[in-house]
Design brief:
CBM21_dom_sf; five-stranded antiparallel β-sheet; PP1_regulatory_subunit_3; glycogen binding; mainly beta; protein phosphatase 1 binding; 2 domains; globular; 54% strand; Immunoglobulin-like
Length: 270
Protein backbone atom coordinates (compact mmCIF):
# COMPACT_ATOMS: atom_id res chain seq x y z
CA UNK A 1 0.00 0.00 0.00
CA UNK A 2 2.84 2.38 0.90
CA UNK A 3 4.58 1.74 -2.43
CA UNK A 4 1.32 2.30 -4.31
CA UNK A 5 0.72 5.64 -2.59
CA UNK A 6 4.33 6.67 -3.23
CA UNK A 7 3.98 5.82 -6.91
CA UNK A 8 0.78 7.82 -7.18
CA UNK A 9 2.40 10.78 -5.43
CA UNK A 10 5.41 10.68 -7.75
CA UNK A 11 3.11 10.50 -10.76
CA UNK A 12 1.12 13.52 -9.55
CA UNK A 13 4.35 15.50 -9.04
CA UNK A 14 5.50 14.59 -12.57
CA UNK A 15 2.17 15.69 -14.08
CA UNK A 16 2.31 18.97 -12.13
CA UNK A 17 5.88 19.67 -13.33
CA UNK A 18 4.88 18.91 -16.91
CA UNK A 19 1.93 21.31 -16.70
CA UNK A 20 4.18 24.07 -15.33
CA UNK A 21 6.66 23.53 -18.16
CA UNK A 22 3.88 23.77 -20.75
CA UNK A 23 2.63 27.05 -19.28
CA UNK A 24 6.16 28.47 -19.21
CA UNK A 25 6.72 27.45 -22.83
CA UNK A 26 3.60 29.37 -23.84
CA UNK A 27 4.45 32.54 -21.92
CA UNK A 28 5.43 35.26 -24.39
CA UNK A 29 7.29 38.24 -22.98
CA UNK A 30 7.70 41.43 -24.97
CA UNK A 31 9.24 44.79 -24.41
CA UNK A 32 8.90 45.78 -20.79
CA UNK A 33 7.82 42.35 -19.61
CA UNK A 34 4.17 42.22 -20.65
CA UNK A 35 3.07 38.74 -21.60
CA UNK A 36 0.26 36.64 -23.00
CA UNK A 37 -0.55 32.98 -23.42
CA UNK A 38 -0.47 31.54 -26.92
CA UNK A 39 0.30 28.39 -28.87
CA UNK A 40 3.06 28.91 -31.43
CA UNK A 41 1.44 26.75 -34.10
CA UNK A 42 -1.91 28.56 -33.84
CA UNK A 43 -0.67 32.16 -33.92
CA UNK A 44 -2.89 34.02 -36.42
CA UNK A 45 -0.42 36.92 -36.89
CA UNK A 46 1.23 37.02 -40.32
CA UNK A 47 3.78 39.85 -40.37
CA UNK A 48 4.44 41.24 -43.89
CA UNK A 49 7.02 44.00 -43.48
CA UNK A 50 8.13 47.11 -41.59
CA UNK A 51 10.50 49.96 -42.40
CA UNK A 52 11.99 53.23 -41.16
CA UNK A 53 10.69 56.34 -42.94
CA UNK A 54 12.86 59.47 -43.06
CA UNK A 55 10.22 62.19 -43.25
CA UNK A 56 11.97 65.56 -43.06
CA UNK A 57 15.30 67.23 -42.36
CA UNK A 58 16.16 70.55 -40.77
CA UNK A 59 19.72 71.53 -39.94
CA UNK A 60 21.33 68.60 -38.16
CA UNK A 61 17.97 67.06 -37.24
CA UNK A 62 15.89 64.46 -39.03
CA UNK A 63 12.32 63.40 -38.31
CA UNK A 64 11.34 59.76 -38.81
CA UNK A 65 8.87 57.07 -37.87
CA UNK A 66 8.23 53.37 -38.51
CA UNK A 67 5.45 51.82 -40.56
CA UNK A 68 4.42 48.43 -41.85
CA UNK A 69 1.74 45.91 -42.73
CA UNK A 70 0.42 42.96 -40.75
CA UNK A 71 -1.81 40.12 -41.86
CA UNK A 72 -4.22 38.32 -39.55
CA UNK A 73 -5.61 34.88 -40.36
CA UNK A 74 -9.24 34.09 -39.58
CA UNK A 75 -10.01 37.63 -38.45
CA UNK A 76 -13.00 37.80 -36.06
CA UNK A 77 -14.66 41.07 -35.14
CA UNK A 78 -14.47 42.90 -32.82
CA UNK A 79 -10.69 42.72 -32.99
CA UNK A 80 -7.65 44.90 -32.35
CA UNK A 81 -4.05 44.98 -33.58
CA UNK A 82 -1.53 46.99 -31.56
CA UNK A 83 2.15 47.77 -32.07
CA UNK A 84 4.10 47.76 -28.82
CA UNK A 85 7.18 49.86 -29.61
CA UNK A 86 10.07 51.93 -28.30
CA UNK A 87 12.61 54.31 -29.82
CA UNK A 88 14.88 53.84 -26.77
CA UNK A 89 16.30 50.48 -27.79
CA UNK A 90 19.50 50.67 -25.74
CA UNK A 91 17.78 51.39 -22.43
CA UNK A 92 14.82 49.13 -23.38
CA UNK A 93 12.49 51.69 -21.83
CA UNK A 94 9.64 54.04 -22.74
CA UNK A 95 7.55 51.33 -24.37
CA UNK A 96 4.34 52.67 -25.89
CA UNK A 97 1.39 51.38 -27.91
CA UNK A 98 -0.07 52.51 -31.23
CA UNK A 99 -3.15 50.97 -32.83
CA UNK A 100 -2.98 49.56 -36.36
CA UNK A 101 -5.65 50.49 -38.91
CA UNK A 102 -7.75 47.85 -40.66
CA UNK A 103 -7.34 47.98 -44.47
CA UNK A 104 -9.36 45.04 -45.84
CA UNK A 105 -8.86 41.50 -47.12
CA UNK A 106 -5.87 40.53 -49.30
CA UNK A 107 -6.04 38.03 -52.19
CA UNK A 108 -4.38 35.42 -49.94
CA UNK A 109 -7.29 35.70 -47.48
CA UNK A 110 -5.39 37.54 -44.77
CA UNK A 111 -6.99 40.55 -43.14
CA UNK A 112 -4.58 43.44 -43.61
CA UNK A 113 -3.65 46.01 -40.96
CA UNK A 114 -1.40 49.04 -41.42
CA UNK A 115 0.53 50.81 -38.68
CA UNK A 116 2.57 53.99 -38.30
CA UNK A 117 4.39 55.01 -35.14
CA UNK A 118 4.40 58.69 -34.08
CA UNK A 119 7.11 60.94 -35.50
CA UNK A 120 10.33 61.52 -33.58
CA UNK A 121 13.19 63.94 -34.29
CA UNK A 122 16.87 63.20 -33.66
CA UNK A 123 20.07 65.10 -34.32
CA UNK A 124 22.79 63.68 -36.53
CA UNK A 125 26.40 64.72 -37.09
CA UNK A 126 28.37 63.03 -38.35
CA UNK A 127 26.61 59.76 -37.46
CA UNK A 128 22.91 58.97 -37.30
CA UNK A 129 20.87 56.18 -35.80
CA UNK A 130 17.13 56.12 -36.58
CA UNK A 131 15.69 52.97 -35.05
CA UNK A 132 12.58 51.38 -33.63
CA UNK A 133 12.04 48.15 -31.70
CA UNK A 134 8.59 46.60 -31.61
CA UNK A 135 6.32 43.60 -31.16
CA UNK A 136 2.85 42.89 -32.53
CA UNK A 137 -0.22 42.25 -30.37
CA UNK A 138 -3.51 40.86 -31.68
CA UNK A 139 -6.70 40.66 -29.60
CA UNK A 140 -9.90 38.90 -30.65
CA UNK A 141 -12.76 37.18 -28.82
CA UNK A 142 -11.02 37.50 -25.48
CA UNK A 143 -7.79 35.92 -26.78
CA UNK A 144 -4.44 37.73 -26.92
CA UNK A 145 -1.64 36.74 -29.32
CA UNK A 146 1.87 38.15 -29.68
CA UNK A 147 4.46 38.08 -32.43
CA UNK A 148 7.68 39.27 -30.81
CA UNK A 149 10.22 37.55 -33.08
CA UNK A 150 10.74 34.58 -30.75
CA UNK A 151 11.13 36.82 -27.68
CA UNK A 152 13.80 38.96 -29.39
CA UNK A 153 11.42 41.71 -30.58
CA UNK A 154 11.72 43.16 -34.08
CA UNK A 155 14.29 45.85 -34.80
CA UNK A 156 14.60 48.26 -37.74
CA UNK A 157 17.49 50.68 -37.89
CA UNK A 158 18.64 53.26 -40.44
CA UNK A 159 22.21 54.05 -39.45
CA UNK A 160 25.68 54.94 -40.68
CA UNK A 161 27.42 54.17 -37.37
CA UNK A 162 30.57 52.09 -38.07
CA UNK A 163 30.21 48.46 -37.05
CA UNK A 164 26.41 48.67 -36.65
CA UNK A 165 24.16 46.79 -39.06
CA UNK A 166 22.06 49.01 -41.30
CA UNK A 167 18.62 47.34 -41.46
CA UNK A 168 16.08 50.05 -42.35
CA UNK A 169 13.55 47.46 -43.54
CA UNK A 170 12.36 43.99 -42.54
CA UNK A 171 10.71 41.73 -45.10
CA UNK A 172 8.97 38.78 -43.46
CA UNK A 173 6.09 37.32 -45.48
CA UNK A 174 6.69 39.87 -48.26
CA UNK A 175 9.45 39.14 -50.77
CA UNK A 176 9.24 42.46 -52.61
CA UNK A 177 7.62 45.83 -51.83
CA UNK A 178 7.40 49.33 -53.25
CA UNK A 179 9.73 51.55 -51.23
CA UNK A 180 9.17 55.10 -52.52
CA UNK A 181 7.68 56.73 -55.58
CA UNK A 182 7.34 60.30 -56.85
CA UNK A 183 6.08 61.97 -60.00
CA UNK A 184 7.33 65.17 -61.57
CA UNK A 185 5.78 66.33 -64.82
CA UNK A 186 6.10 63.41 -67.26
CA UNK A 187 8.45 61.23 -65.21
CA UNK A 188 7.88 58.72 -62.41
CA UNK A 189 10.84 57.76 -60.22
CA UNK A 190 10.62 54.99 -57.64
CA UNK A 191 12.50 52.43 -55.58
CA UNK A 192 11.85 48.82 -54.62
CA UNK A 193 13.00 46.68 -51.69
CA UNK A 194 13.36 42.92 -52.14
CA UNK A 195 14.82 39.83 -50.51
CA UNK A 196 18.00 38.73 -52.23
CA UNK A 197 17.01 35.14 -52.99
CA UNK A 198 19.64 34.66 -55.70
CA UNK A 199 22.24 36.69 -57.58
CA UNK A 200 20.39 36.30 -60.89
CA UNK A 201 17.03 38.06 -60.81
CA UNK A 202 14.68 40.15 -62.95
CA UNK A 203 12.84 43.10 -61.41
CA UNK A 204 10.22 44.96 -63.44
CA UNK A 205 7.42 47.46 -63.05
CA UNK A 206 4.33 46.71 -65.12
CA UNK A 207 2.14 49.76 -65.71
CA UNK A 208 -0.85 50.96 -67.71
CA UNK A 209 -2.05 54.36 -68.88
CA UNK A 210 -5.53 53.18 -69.95
CA UNK A 211 -6.80 51.03 -67.07
CA UNK A 212 -5.19 47.79 -68.33
CA UNK A 213 -6.51 47.89 -71.87
CA UNK A 214 -2.79 47.90 -72.71
CA UNK A 215 0.29 47.67 -70.52
CA UNK A 216 4.00 48.45 -70.60
CA UNK A 217 7.02 47.20 -68.70
CA UNK A 218 10.12 48.96 -67.43
CA UNK A 219 13.11 47.25 -65.80
CA UNK A 220 14.45 48.24 -62.39
CA UNK A 221 18.17 48.46 -61.67
CA UNK A 222 20.15 47.47 -58.59
CA UNK A 223 20.94 50.35 -56.23
CA UNK A 224 22.29 49.26 -52.81
CA UNK A 225 22.24 46.37 -50.32
CA UNK A 226 21.42 46.40 -46.61
CA UNK A 227 22.93 44.26 -43.87
CA UNK A 228 20.04 41.77 -43.69
CA UNK A 229 20.19 40.41 -47.26
CA UNK A 230 17.73 42.97 -48.62
CA UNK A 231 18.42 44.96 -51.77
CA UNK A 232 17.10 48.29 -52.99
CA UNK A 233 16.39 48.76 -56.71
CA UNK A 234 15.39 51.88 -58.64
CA UNK A 235 13.14 52.44 -61.66
CA UNK A 236 12.16 55.33 -63.94
CA UNK A 237 9.09 55.63 -66.17
CA UNK A 238 9.45 58.39 -68.75
CA UNK A 239 7.12 60.13 -71.18
CA UNK A 240 3.94 59.94 -69.13
CA UNK A 241 1.28 62.22 -70.65
CA UNK A 242 0.15 65.07 -68.43
CA UNK A 243 -2.91 64.43 -66.23
CA UNK A 244 -2.75 60.68 -66.95
CA UNK A 245 -3.43 58.31 -64.05
CA UNK A 246 -0.86 55.51 -63.97
CA UNK A 247 -1.60 52.13 -62.41
CA UNK A 248 1.24 49.71 -61.78
CA UNK A 249 2.60 46.73 -59.86
CA UNK A 250 6.01 45.15 -59.23
CA UNK A 251 7.10 41.80 -60.70
CA UNK A 252 10.18 40.18 -59.11
CA UNK A 253 11.31 36.97 -60.82
CA UNK A 254 13.99 34.81 -59.20
CA UNK A 255 14.76 31.08 -59.42
CA UNK A 256 11.86 30.64 -61.85
CA UNK A 257 9.29 32.08 -59.41
CA UNK A 258 7.42 35.38 -59.69
CA UNK A 259 6.79 37.48 -56.58
CA UNK A 260 4.46 40.44 -56.89
CA UNK A 261 3.70 43.59 -54.99
CA UNK A 262 0.36 44.81 -56.30
CA UNK A 263 -0.70 46.68 -53.16
CA UNK A 264 -2.60 43.67 -51.80
CA UNK A 265 -4.55 43.18 -55.01
CA UNK A 266 -5.53 46.80 -55.68
CA UNK A 267 -2.46 47.91 -57.71
CA UNK A 268 -0.63 51.16 -57.10
CA UNK A 269 -1.88 54.43 -58.57
CA UNK A 270 -0.17 57.74 -59.19
Amino acid sequence: MFKTRSSIALMLIFILMLAVNIVNAQEVKVGNGKGAKMAEDSNPIDFYYAKVNLLSEQGISKTYNASGYIGVKNNSFPTKVTIHYTYDIYSNSNWKDVDAKYMGVAPDGNHIWHFETPKITRDYYPYFNYDCQFAIKYESNGQVYWDNNHQQNYLIKNTNVPGVNNIPILLKRSRVILDKVSRENNTIVGSIDLKNLDYSKDVKVVYTLDNWQTSNTVSANYNISYDNNIENWKFIINNIPNDTKVKYYIDYKVNGTHYYDNNFGTNYKI
